[in-house]
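Interim report to the steering committee. The following record documents the input for Large ribosomal subunit protein bL25 (214 residues).
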Amino acid sequence: MSSTLQVQARQESTKGELRRIRSAGQVPGVVYGKGLDSPARIVIDGKDLAAVLRSQSNSVIEIDVPGAGKQPVMLSDLQRDPISRKIMHIDFHRIDMNQKVTTAARLDITGVSPGEKEGGMLQLVAHEVEIECYPKDIPDTIRVDVSQLGVGDHLTIGELKFPEGVVATQDPETVIVAVLAPQKERTEEELDAMDDKAEEDRKHSEAATAVDKG
């Protein structure tokens, strides 16, 4: 946990009070989870929150609540204004650092595929992989080395190298990246896969906006 968010406790708010909070550049939120008798309502500075989410969206975040001390949490849900994209509300889940958690880790493509040099197209089928580990072991990214992939080759989750203590929870045969043949040589199945990827990229782009814009 490299960052600590300073938050303030708040009472259950009316719509008018929530508008006042947001107008002041703050974000209302709720903390759920272990060790809490009931959900804790909080208020966070919007700029501080956006900065932390850009760097630690899938990691453990520490929040400092006056009267309750520092609490380890993970992002549970985030709501944005559909037009301005400002963060409107956020939910955190308090975790136990001594118990394993399941979360998503982003994939980081490294190397240059020989297949691309031959005219092939590198297709990233998945942008993240679901993992299980202790909170302290959550990696920033999972490295995907494509430097050995020729045209027609692919990598599966089972072929990835995970840090010690980190395991994938998805089917190890799931393909995450492939090198398609040059366009004039592509089969109908590969062209269909490209269409599916375009749709998946659109969805991932929309999901990423929930964290990357602030």
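Helices lie at 15-23, 46-56, 114-117, 188-212. The committee is asked to note this result when reviewing the revised timeline.
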